[in-house]
């Protein structure tokens, strides 16, 4: 029998529109045109101007022949241009590819080729590495250079003048451009690349629906009222800034751009602009606390991911006036989708117990339908005993579409109808999960994912290295840093400094091992390296 509630009640344009976060900006610009959307140094941009500039960018991209399914790459710092790209690029129907500004040319070139970039918008500071990448890449995207007035240097000025200027490019656009809604909310809005833990980086494709839901999820998770002020201490290239570029438009909030994460500018912004929220890795907390002891007049919410911060850091942040909340997620779930929601009764617990509770990753975001810890072999949930290890798995509308042009990896990631994170955790009796290990040997340093395999591959290319193994070493400043164990080839000798210099030549600086130990590396009878023994050696 047909369901009577589905008879004659079909979807039509009047009652069904695809979800997209782009509408947040249009709504706020219409209702609060003069509200401050962006602050960058002396520059203040209203919501009407933000909306107009985003449409101007979209119209110019359309004039370049870009449309649905085309890729625009952005190698930009936390600047107004990066915020405009989060709207203007998808408003043209295109897909935004945000590039980690700390990457080396070879990896950038791979991403440009794999994403089939048609346009590349580059901050002048990163022009040199961008040009090196384009020498390697097979694609030839139109290069547009953003000259940030807050970057006070003449470096690369000569080279920059050879390419279209971003401001001039936008100025030629149509501020009343009729931007494109997605045909379907399942359409891609962005592509973000993983760190390449098992080979080349994988392109994580996110859709408009997921970006819309996670952006609104941030409002609930961060308890953000209208007119909140968000300080950009989190890189916008990292999982699209955890979707906060879209979140702030939903609440008529103000973006305070910060080109470099430094102690003095952070405190200046906190006081001058009355910042209410900011995010970052534990290293950002260390930077905040590194100078003269200061105390905020009002509480400021700080959201951190990666390795749990030390108890001392949490205590110092609280004394300074910050309320710290621990998050967890991956690029495949639009950034953080798990939050350590705090219970009022925990406020009365001793400091050491509070620190243990804060170290847990927590429970699912509101827009995430399911989160659990499974035994991968059986796909059955592990007992909630705080001891039994399993793999963290996600299911819901804030899980990626899949990996770009990689159906095998996509099928493997979604096996059994769940997204397999590759992270190992326990589940506590109250349902909160806590990470214990990473099955892919990821090292999270300063909020950035580093592949131990990539470092090992570089070490193996040195003629003096016979065996190499890299693990995560706890570090108070960075959370974790790479620690390399090396066995030298017969008759060969090499120093720690020489190996670090070798790695520096072949990878981004933040991936270079901070420590190198020359020792026999433990193996199983079949020759497999026993990394758990190496991890035990670097435990504090």
From TrEMBL:
State if Iron is listed as a keyword: no
Q: Where is each AMP-binding enzyme C-terminal domain found?
A: 454-528
Q: Which InterPro entries match?
A: AMP-bd_C, AMP-bd_C_sf, AMP-binding_CS, AMP-dep_synth/lig_dom, ANL_N_sf
PROSITE patterns reported for this sequence: AMP_BINDING
* AMP-dependent synthetase/ligase domain span: 26-404
Keyword terms of this UniProt record: Fatty acid metabolism, Ligase, Lipid metabolism
Coiled-coil stretches are: none
> Hey, which family's this protein in?
Belongs to the ATP-dependent AMP-binding enzyme family.
Q: What is this protein called?
A: Acyl-CoA synthetase
Source organism (scientific name): Enterovibrio qingdaonensis
Species lineage, top-down?
Bacteria, Pseudomonadati, Pseudomonadota, Gammaproteobacteria, Vibrionales
């Amino acid at each position: 029998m047909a369901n009577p509630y589905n008879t004659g009640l079909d979807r039509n344009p009047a009652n069904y529109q695809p979800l997209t976060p782009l509408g947040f900006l249009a709504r706020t610009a219409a209702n609060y045109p003069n509200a401050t959307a962006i602050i960058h140094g002396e520059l203040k941009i209203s919501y009407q101007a933000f909306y107009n500039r985003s449409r101007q960018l979209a119209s110019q991209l359309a004039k370049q022949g870009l449309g649905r399914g085309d890729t625009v790459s952005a190698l930009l710092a936390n600047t107004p241009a990066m915020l405009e790209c989060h709207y203007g690029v998808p408003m043209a129907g295109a897909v935004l590819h945000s590039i980690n500004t700390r990457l080396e040319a070879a990896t950038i070139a791979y991403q440009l080729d794999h994403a089939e970039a048609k346009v590349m918008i580059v901050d002048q500071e990163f022009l040199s590495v961008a040009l090196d990448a384009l020498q390697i890449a097979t694609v030839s995207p139109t290069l547009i250079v953003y000259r940030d007035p807050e970057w006070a240097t003449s470096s690369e000025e000569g080279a920059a003048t050879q390419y279209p200027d971003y401001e001039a490019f936008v100025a030629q656009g149509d501020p009343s451009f009729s931007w494109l809604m997605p045909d379907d909310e399942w359409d891609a809005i962005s592509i973000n690349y993983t760190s390449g833990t098992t080979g080349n980086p994988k392109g994580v494709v996110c859709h408009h629906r997921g970006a819309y839901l996670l952006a609104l999820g941030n409002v609930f998770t961060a308890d953000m009222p209208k007119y909140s002020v968000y300080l950009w201490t989190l890189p916008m290239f990292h999982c699209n800034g955890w979707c906060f570029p879209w979140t702030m438009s939903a609440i008529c909030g103000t973006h305070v751009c910060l080109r470099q994460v430094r102690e003095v500018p952070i405190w200046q912004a906190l006081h001058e602009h009355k910042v209410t929220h900011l995010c970052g890795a534990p290293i950002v907390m260390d930077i905040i606390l590194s100078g003269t002891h200061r105390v905020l007049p009002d509480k400021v919410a700080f959201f951190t991911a990666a390795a749990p911060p030390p108890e001392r850091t949490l205590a110092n942040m609280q004394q300074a006036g910050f309320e710290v909340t621990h998050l967890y997620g991956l690029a495949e779930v639009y950034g953080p989708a798990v939050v350590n929601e705090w219970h009022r009764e925990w406020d009365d617990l001793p400091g050491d117990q509070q620190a243990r509770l804060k170290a847990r990753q927590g429970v699912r975001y509101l827009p995430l339908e399911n989160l659990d810890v499974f035994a991968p072999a059986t796909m059955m949930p592990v007992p909630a005993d705080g001891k039994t290890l399993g793999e963290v798995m996600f299911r819901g509308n804030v899980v990626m579409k899949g990996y770009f042009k990689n159906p095998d990896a996509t099928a493997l990631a979604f096996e059994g109808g769940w997204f397999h994170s590759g992270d190992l955790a326990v589940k506590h009796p109250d349902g909160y999960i806590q990470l214990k290990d990473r099955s892919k040997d990821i090292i999270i340093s300063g909020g950035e994912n580093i592949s131990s395999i990539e470092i090992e591959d570089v070490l193996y290319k040195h003629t003096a290295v016979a065996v190499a193994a890299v693990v995560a070493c706890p570090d108070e400043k960075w959370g974790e840093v790479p620690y390399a164990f090396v066995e030298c080839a017969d008759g060969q000798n090499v120093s720690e400094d020489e190996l670090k210099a070798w790695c520096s030549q072949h990878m981004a600086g933040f991936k270079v091992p901070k420590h190198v130990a020359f020792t026999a590396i433990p193996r199983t009878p079949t020759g497999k390296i026993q990394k758990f023994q190496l991890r035990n050696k670097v435990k504090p």
